[in-house]
């Protein structure tokens, strides 16, 4: 047999060169993979329990969880209600991260007037070793100005471990408490051997003078170790209360109601350290206090010390500020320091809210025929089918994600996440890509992702039963594709031009390894690509709208879309729940927001396909996109209302538009589907800028002031200002202002005004209340609804960092 021609040239020299080249490739791959391992390791630990005021866990299921509880102990009445653990609305006077970086750590401040104390948590991570390194937190309590100088505070650090071993090291029998540091030793398969030390710390302890003091002096640390069922482990507060109660009962029996121990003494656990899967470590202080929790991995080069926390927190502060200035610094007119502080706080809370969730979830896969929503009156059948309660437990699954709000929505929301990651990807590309991947990993075989991820019993405890079930025919806006588009923009800019900001990026391997290394970037996209396509085709199939049954005229007979899961008052799946839609609902409805999202998604997929060289796919996506763009015009533009409208079928079986001016009417513009010379732009800018319609001096209203449903019923998306949609508008106005054309000048002015209005609105409310809010009132500008809404409201960080276009003419406004 003769060798093919090319093999005849195969000489030893060629072979050697070939080997050498392989070696170089491998060496490069090793370097990349070790950068990626380090990057991944630096994400292992975090305050990934954002539902707690402070709780730490690794991104590992069933692993070491810990968290902080505290209360003042000065009277008997208030203790139960003042015991802090999970974030709740309206109990504190502001709390959150002043600065935080997921890789290194940061500082959180908590203002607790009812307990008379301010608490700071300074969390640091120190890399090293093969198990994700060490971490530590310094917990400091400072009595507030109006508190008694002898304020007594009980503090509990609780640690639990579902699978593995955890015990208090070297306990002496028969002691009344531990003097010095408390050390827990443990082992799990993923973490190896480790130690968690709770230091003695600094601060005075109450001397109660009551005879019970001798049995349990409060100048030492009390430790209680118990075994609980795995399913109960998350209920730390209930476990603590149960143990406190039995101790209180015993103390009251002993000392009687006539001479009870004072609260600081009475509310103490009994000291019983040892083995257990839950360990409660309690300290009682008088006045200010401070102590550290130090986690050391046995594989790290050395143990973490209090001095490491001091040093690391200092370098985090400098590093964070420096990097923030480079990447997200507010631009004119927001140059005063207070805007920088505001921006840092919002951004820190966005990434400080990132959590790791693990657990089962409730899904109704009955595929009840009522869920097809294809007959008139379908919503009643669907409601009955839901009431039959056909949900079953699925999973467990894991999710790494940020969240809309720590007290109210401490879990993953699909469409929120795409907005959350837009500021995050500017700061930390690898982190954002990890989160995107985590979401797409939740996809089922059909391509569905549940829009609200309520994983595990702890997450479910915050959600009423009727809202826990997810349905695999329900969609949610595919906003994660905006994040992938942002990633592609960065990739193009980095690998095509000599943009000076690239030097910063390039030195930032710990945040951007998958951006800097183009092969790693393409690898990531290639791995994700099949999931993205599956998701896309799931949308096309399950959310299709009907063109042909109703004599509708359109460029394409296929591209029309309808949200499933609607009721007369709501389309929760659309994200803009109570925005007025055709009523009563009809199976022939078509939704302009959904076809616009599909346009955005199609375009994003086309770009990804093109980066991956998938030419056939790219052609197919281009055809879809073209058809979608035409059909948005043919099916949704209303010549009389001069906006885009939903469509439905009237009593005479005719296609009609249903127009309620608001975010819906400008949706194709908001998601970037209108070119700068679009004949629709004039009308879109008219409705957007009209104070009788969308425009208010605080931002764009969700529903026009002139609409009959403005501020009616729940008034959720019927007027109030939402920052996510406003952000999209600002981005599009900026694009228009940079594109020569008939609307350039007008867009520049609108961009400038809207940008300033939004920043002022969110800033003023933050200054006044200490919180970012879910939405803002278009009449007063005040924040309303959910407090501590540091999810997409944080997009104001990006809005501040956008260019200032004011002052190219005369009359530039002063610095604000
Ligand atoms: C990153 O770390 C997590 C947690 O240790 C681990 O489960 C995952 O496999 C790691 N990923 C990579 C790509 O190494």
How would you characterize the overall build of this protein?
This protein has about 800 residues and is an alpha+beta fold. Among the domains are: about 1-40; about 45-325, Glycosyl hydrolase family 63, N-terminal domain (Beta-galactosidase, Chain A, domain 5, Distorted Sandwich); about 345-505, no CATH class. About 35% of the residues lie in helices and about 20% in strands. The strands form 7 sheets. Strands 1, 2, 3, 4, 5, 6, 7, 8, 9, 10, 11, 12, 13 and 14 form a 14-stranded antiparallel β-sheet that branches. A hairpin with a 4-residue loop joins strand 19 and strand 20. Helix 10 (about 430-440) runs antiparallel to helix 12. The termini are far apart. The model is unreliable at about 1-10 (pLDDT under 50). It binds 2-acetamido-2-deoxy-beta-D-glucopyranose (NAG). 2-acetamido-2-deoxy-beta-D-glucopyranose binds near residues 37, 44 and 59. Its EC number is 3.2.1.106. InterPro entries: 6-hairpin_glycosidase_sf, 6hp_glycosidase-like_sf, Glyco_hydro_63_C, Glyco_hydro_63N, Glyco_hydro_63N_sf, Glycoside_hydrolase_63.
Q: Give the N-to-C terminal Cα separation.
A: 83 Å
Bound molecule kinds, no repeats: 2-acetamido-2-deoxy-beta-D-glucopyranose
Number of strands: 26
**What is the global morphology?**
globular
Organism: Delitschia confertaspora ATCC 74209
Family: Belongs to the glycosyl hydrolase 63 family.
Keywords: Endoplasmic reticulum, Glycoprotein, Glycosidase, Hydrolase, Membrane, Signal, Signal-anchor, Transmembrane, Transmembrane helix
Domain Glycosyl hydrolase family 63 C-terminal: 305-802
């Amino acid at each position: 047999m003769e060798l093919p021609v090319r093999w005849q040239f195969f000489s030893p020299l060629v072979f050697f060169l070939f080997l050498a080249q392989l070696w170089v490739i491998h060496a490069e791959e090793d370097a990349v993979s070790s950068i990626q391992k380090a990057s991944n390791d630096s994400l292992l630990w975090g305050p990934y329990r954002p539902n707690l005021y402070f709780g730490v866990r690794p991104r590992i299921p069933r692993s070491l969880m810990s968290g902080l509880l505290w209360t003042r102990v000065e009277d008997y009445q208030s203790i139960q209600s003042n015991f802090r653990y999970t974030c709740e609305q309206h109990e504190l006077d502001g709390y959150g991260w002043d600065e935080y970086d997921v890789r290194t750590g940061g500082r959180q401040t908590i203002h607790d007037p009812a307990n008379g104390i301010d608490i700071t948590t300074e969390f640091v991570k120190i890399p090293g070793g093969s198990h994700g390194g060490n971490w530590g937190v310094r917990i400091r309590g400072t009595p507030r100005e109006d508190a008694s100088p002898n304020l007594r505070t009980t503090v509990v650090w609780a640690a639990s471990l579902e699978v593995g071993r955890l015990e208090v090291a070297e306990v002496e029998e028969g002691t009344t408490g531990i003097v010095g540091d408390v050390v827990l030793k443990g082992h799990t398969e993923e973490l190896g051997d480790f130690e968690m030390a709770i230091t003695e710390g600094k601060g005075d302890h109450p001397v109660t003078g009551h005879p019970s003091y001798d049995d349990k002096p409060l100048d030492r640390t009390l430790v209680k170790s118990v075994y609980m069922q795995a399913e109960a482990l998350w209920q730390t507060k209930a476990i603590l209360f149960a143990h406190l109660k039995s101790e209180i009962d015993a103390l009251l029996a002993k000392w009687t109601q006539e001479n009870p121990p004072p609260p600081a003494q009475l509310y103490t656990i009994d000291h019983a350290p040892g083995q257990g899967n839950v360990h409660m470590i309690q300290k009682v202080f008088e006045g200010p206090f401070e102590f550290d929790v130090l986690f050391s991995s046995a594989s790290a080069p050395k143990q973490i010390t209090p001095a490491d926390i001091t040093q690391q927190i200092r370098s985090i502060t400098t590093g964070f500020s420096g990097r923030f200035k480079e990447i997200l610094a507010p631009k004119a007119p927001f140059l005063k320091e207070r805007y920088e502080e505001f921006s840092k706080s919002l951004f820190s809370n966005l990434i400080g809210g990132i959590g790791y969730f693990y657990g089962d979830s409730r899904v109704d896969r009955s595929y009840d025929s009522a869920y097809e929503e294809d007959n008139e009156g379908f919503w009643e059948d669907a409601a009955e089918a839901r009431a039959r309660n056909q949900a079953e437990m699925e999973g467990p699954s894991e999710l790494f994600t940020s969240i809309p709000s720590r007290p109210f929505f401490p879990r993953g929301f699909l469409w929120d996440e795409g907005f959350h990651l837009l500021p995050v990807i500017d700061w930390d590309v690898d982190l954002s890509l990890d989160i995107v991947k985590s979401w797409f990993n939740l996809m089922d075989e059909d391509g569905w992702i549940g829009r609200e991820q309520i994983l595990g019993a702890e997450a479910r405890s915050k959600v009423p039963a009727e809202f826990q079930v997810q349905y695999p025919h329900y969609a949610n806006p595919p906003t994660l594709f905006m994040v992938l588009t942002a990633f592609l923009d960065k990739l193009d800019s980095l690998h095509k031009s000599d943009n000076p900001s690239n030097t910063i990026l390039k030195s930032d391997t710990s945040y951007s390894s998958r951006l800097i290394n183009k092969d790693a970037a393409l690898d990531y996209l290639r791995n994700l690509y099949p999931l993205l396509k599956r998701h896309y085709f799931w949308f096309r199939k399950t959310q299709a709208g009907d063109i042909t049954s109703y004599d509708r005229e359109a460029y394409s007979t296929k591209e029309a879309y309808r949200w499933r899961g609607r009721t007369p008052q709501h389309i929760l799946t659309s994200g803009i729940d109570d925005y007025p839609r055709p009523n009563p609902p009809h199976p022939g409805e078509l939704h302009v927001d959904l076809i616009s999202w599909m346009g955005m998604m199609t375009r994003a997929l086309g770009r990804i396909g093109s980066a991956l060289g998938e030419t056939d796919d790219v052609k197919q996506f281009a055809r879809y996109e073209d058809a979608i763009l035409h059909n948005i015009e043919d099916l949704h533009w209303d010549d009389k209302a001069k906006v885009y409208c939903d469509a439905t079928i009237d009593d005479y079986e005719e296609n009609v538009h249903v127009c309620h001016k608001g975010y819906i009417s400008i949706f194709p513009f908001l998601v970037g589907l209108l070119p700068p010379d679009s004949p629709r732009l004039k009308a879109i800018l008219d409705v957007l800028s009209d104070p009788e319609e969308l425009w208010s001096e605080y931002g764009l209203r969700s529903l026009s002031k002139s609409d009959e449903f403005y501020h009616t019923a729940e008034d959720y998306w019927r007027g109030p200002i939402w920052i996510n949609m406003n952000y999209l508008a600002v981005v599009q106005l900026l694009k228009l202002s940079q594109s020569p054309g008939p609307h350039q000048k007008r867009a520049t002015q609108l961009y400038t005004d809207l940008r300033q209005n939004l920043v002022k609105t969110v800033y003023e409310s933050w200054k006044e209340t200490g919180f970012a809010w879910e939405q803002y009132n278009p009449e007063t500008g005040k924040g309303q609804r959910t407090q501590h809404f540091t999810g997409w409201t944080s997009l104001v960080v990006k809005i501040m960092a956008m260019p200032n276009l004011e002052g190219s003419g005369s009359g530039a406004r002063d610095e604000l």
